[in-house]
């Protein structure tokens, strides 16, 4: 089948592509070739990849094609093009972390998630661009990753290329990391689904750490159901698809975190989030307001942990490689070395107390909701140094507490047609409840919307 005849399939679901493979209406080779062609067409505009694995991807696609040709039973990710953030080690393949310091780094081991994807039969097409060391700023050597809804806007960080590529139909999923919102923020900006699972759900072997206490690994996809398919392959979780994705949320208790709503000033974000909450109510959810004392300011305590732990990771380079860091990244590291042991231990104690507060709130409801971000995609990557920009106020609380949190698009702004995210938070290890609510909402609001690029 000619590549152009396959391109319309690049925005289909993982299960739909799998059905086409099994019926032999289309092959993994055709879908992979079309994916790579779209990648190369859009890459100058999006800047979503650091490394593209054309030959490796096509070889894997041919192996998958042979399986389907024989009628061999195959898993859901066999032959499905995906990508991974360039923060995971890949044996024999450069792992740069968007940095000058590691620009030529070629590991001799594979990260757990990379191995899991390969063993699941996924076709890994490349490694995604990201903010330098996942620490809030892009290195000028790599450049900003742009948003497929408007290439003059950022795709958000730090899992920049992961969100941009998936939103643009370059692969059906990507694996990102989230320490303060780095999966959910770009998912919100790009109008896709991004999940930060419960802390520790996905093994971190082969992940270069930013903050070991707050780092999470999770999937970015276009649909909630695709997200669950990928999470099953990189974790020990298994979902009952008939129950989780029934579309029925009648009686599900949804708690609106009022403090995270009241601090939003963008009227379009307020309107879209309010409409999303009303939709959940229309679907039968029992919606109520929930109070989590101090959540609107917990970001400052969480950042103490991030700053201190990140500086410990970078201590071997800090004195000798200043010129190789983005100045903003180096400023963060400098600030981290100024954190006292007492302040760090106090922040960990605050973390324990705050986690208990979130647990207490989730005794009253099944899930919590809030806007993911206070605004749609900005022109440049928002950073911690910009004191007037609300960067992670709504996302980092749940890195701090470790609860699962997902961003799904609540719609696009009328003024500029930019996506806005709705964040859904669940109890520890209850990703199923988060998925159930997010999927019902996504299905009721028309599913994934294709960007104009």
Automatic annotation (TrEMBL):
It comes from the Bacteria. InterPro entries: Amidase, Amidase_dom, AS_sf. Residues 30-434 form the Amidase domain. It holds the Pfam family Amidase. Transmembrane segments: none annotated. PANTHER family: AMIDASE AMID-RELATED, TRANSAMIDASE. This is Amidase.
